[in-house]
Each structure stands twice: as structure tokens, then as C-alpha cells.
Amino acid sequence: RGHRVHVVTSLPWYRRHRVEDGWTGRVWRRETTSWGSVVRVSPFAGRDKANIPRRAVGFAAFSLLIGVRGLFVGGVHRRAGAVVAMSPPLTLGLTGWVVAKIRRAPLVFNIQDVFPDAAISTGKLSNRRVIALAAWLERLSYRRSDAVVVLSDDLRNNVAAKMPARHTGKAVVIPNFVDSDAIVPRSTDTAYRREFAPQADRVVMYAGNVGFSQSLELLVEAARRMADVTFVVNGEGSSRAELESLAAGLSNVVFVDYQSADRLAEVLASADVHVGPLRRGLGNVSVPSKAYSIMAAARPIVASIDADSEVARMIGSARCGAVVPPDDADALVAALRSLLDAPAELAAMGARGRTWVVEHASPARVGESYAALIERLAKR
Hints:
Blueprint: E1 5-10, E2 28-32, E3 36-41, H1 52-70, E4 83-87, H2 92-102, E5 107-111, H3 117-121, H4 128-144, E6 147-150, H5 153-160, E7 171-173, H6 191-196, E8 203-207, H7 217-225, E9 230-234, H8 240-246, E10 253-256, H9 264-269, E11 273-277, H10 290-296, E12 301-304, H11 310-318, E13 321-324, H12 329-340, H13 343-360, H14 363-379
Helix pairs in contact: 1-2, 7-12, 10-13
């Protein structure tokens, strides 16, 4: 749409919580692109995700460095059309506010997960003082922003409830996009499936982060009860070792590391059904955007998630899968059995999901929403 975009982000580190090979040795790196630039800075990451104090210090150092670099991208102190800051980490709210003030631009604060709510719900955060500090920082960041972009109506209600009445209009729903041109429907007969599940007649897959928020022990229990189905867990994260231990002795559970980005469409196509398990109570503080990628690949989803969540409503609206109560193995197994035993309906669900996501979450549609928001703020 003609905008120049300058990105300040972290060096690649997320997969193993350390800076990846080929990116070490420098605190930051800069790349010039046809549409702007990308500056990558050290994330100051620690390998132990459960060490909240260590992570807090790392987030603070990262936020400071990313703010310094943000002051200079696109020309020293040149006025910007807008500054978009993303959370988590929550500390980037204040970083974005400082950069926006100096660059004389409106601040758009994008919330991917509501913090500290998500950390509290998963049990990762229990220290009352830390919770109080995070809640204060959260409210302050919302008040200092000109717009707060969230991914769903649930998140908008959550965020608006923490704002003074005069600020609630700042909360705007814009979903994450999925590259529906790169992720397209394909046959299940892929090189990935032949490599990792060569004897499988039917494949159920979870693809994504293996962490605290996901109830992946449900998959292991489902695998115990469905010996004729192969379950693939494609991903890495802090809970993977524990999950592998839980699945020890089950020949129909396969663990696969993250694949390169250019294989994403192939990975998603390799499953007959995908699952999206999220722990009870997280439906209104987090939206698993991987659901959009699954729908773009024309595969049905069985979501183990709160019934009043955005993902549940989306699946119901698109008629592209099934929703079962969170942490309910019986319901998950019943839903998987029902879908796997109806291949024609599986294909129809996949096609409906593909149609929905192209209409609602394509890059063009989401890009238009952000451009319109930024132009509206600029006029104000």
C-alpha cells in the first residue's frame, strides 16, 4: 500500500532460547529491504523459561536496546507515520510510547497474549508483587497508547475492562494474517509424511510450540486409546521433554522438530486432522493463530478450548472442525473418531475453512485494516 516500514526486532532465538548459529557475535544487525529495513538486536534470552526473574531482566534489557535502535531507523529522529509495538514482552508498551513521543507519531500497541493474565492462568506467574507490577505496567501501556490492537472480541473485552471508560474505544480487533498464497491445499501424500509417518493410515497432528499453555498430555492419552491412528507432535518448547517421557512406549506418537519455513504448507498438509489444545481459562487471553494456517491448508481442526472463546466461535462460523471442552480426553477422542471416520466431511470442512480464512485473514485484508487504522490516527 506504499508505506515505508522499518522493523526493530530480535535476533533469531525462539526455537531453543539461544541466538541461532550464524547470528551470534554481534549485539545487533541491520538489513536494508525494498520496503524499508530490519534491525535485529540481542534478545538477552535465557534457556530456562520458568525463571521469571531472569526473563524479566532479559525483557527489560531487550526493550531498552530495541528502543534505542527504534529512535534511529528510517533517519535520525525523522517523524514517523506511526509506531507499532507488540506484546509480549509487555515492556515494549513503554518502549513504544517513548519512541512514538520522540518520533512525533501515534502509538499502536499490538497485544498477542494478554500479560500477566496468560502467565497467571498457566501457573507460570504466582508472585503477588510481580503480578501487581505487571498489571500496573499493563494498564499504563494501554493508557499511553493511541490504539490497542487485539486479535479477538474476547481480548478486546479483557483489555477494555482494564481501561478507564474514556479509553475503551482504543481497543480495536484486527486478527493476525496467514499467508494464504504460500499455504495452499495439498495432498496428504507428502515427503514429510513419508519420512516421519510412513506406515500411517491416518495422522492427527499438533504443530506449534510445546509449552505450558497447551494441554498436550491429552494427545498422549488419545494415542493410548487410538492405537490405529498416528499422532505427530511437530514443534519444540519447554514442555517437550516432559511430553516425550509421558509418551514413552507408545509407538503411534511421533515427535518432530520444527521444520524450515518453506516446508510449512507441506507439514500442515501431512495431517488428516489437526488439534488445538489450550488449557481451561486461556481462551479469552490468547488466540492460537496457528488455527488460521491450518484452515489455509484446508485441514479440519479439533479445538480443545473454552466454548466461549474466539477460536471456538470461528470454527463454528466456518464449520471447519469441532470444539470440545478443554482438558477432556473423552470428548477429544470422540471428536477425532467421528471426523476420521467421515473422510468426505473432512474434505468439506477443510474447504470451508480455506474459504473463511482467505476472506477474513489474508495479508491483503489485514494490511488494509492496519493501514486504515494508522491513517485514521494520523488525521486525529
